[in-house]
Amino acid sequence: MPLRLPDRLPAIDILKHENIFVMDETRAHSQEIRPLRIVVLNLMPLKITTETDLVRLLSNTPLQMEICFMKLRSHTPKNTPVEHMMMFYKDFDELATHKFDGMIITGAPIEMMDYEEVEYWAEIREIFDWARTHVTSTMYLCWGAMAGLYHFYGIPKYALPKKMFGIFRQYPLSQALPIFRGFDDSFFMPQSRHTEVRREDIEAVPGLEIIAASPESGVSIVMARGGREFFITGHLEYAPNTLDREFRRDKDVRDDVELPVNYYRDNRPEAGPVVSWRAHANLFYSNWINYYVYQQTPYNIDDIR
Description:
The protein is α/β, with parallel strands linked by helices. The chain is built from 10 helices and 12 strands. Strands 1, 2, 3, 4, 5, 6, 7, 8, 9, 10, 11 and 12 form a 12-stranded mixed β-sheet that branches. The radius of gyration is 19 Å and the shape is globular.
């Protein structure tokens, strides 16, 4: 079954060229199916790119899903046309009375700031608290993951001596969990961050479980509340060329930019990337939708508590 997306969302045409089955709202309304409702709080500067990355992964399931995009009332994006935001995004205030089967909260390019210094921190905290009673399972990504761990559990973040940048091998620590069903003994995850959360802080908090980690990049996935919350420090959703774009952007303005680790063929940017994370990324999102959203959420969405 396809995803139900807003009419004329740019991701529709992009993904149709990749032979991914998507359906706009006009056609979807003719089907008598209770779709899963997924809301995405997209804090990334390049909204359309992130929309496409996430929709690509969410599409790899037989379940029909209705995707909704949320924006902040307290922040105006600078890198996405106002027309796009007005057409496809709704303020939190408009969605606060609704309930959703699943939610994804993305990263944001503000990780070096203290949380309390972020202009929209008060609204983010309000949304985090709202998600606990209005969403069956929420996935927090990168800065979103660190912010969620800090808000709910007091887990601090630490500045890294240099950017964690590249593709790093991860190891599932609880392979019996449904989220890892079908996984190999290890998998790869893109990382692009200047801060980290530490194992010892997380292990000291009851209710938090580190379920995947790397000897090189540290904690990668934390689970809480029996799978109602997942905190992911990396970017399984990244497209093949995302790290390449970041590398070329940064090296043009700074002189301390290193090659992304384990990314380019023979470590040569001109040779292009080796995509080593796509299969597990699709499997991870499919497992999340199936086992932690679809099989846990009530048929009557208003019964979510």
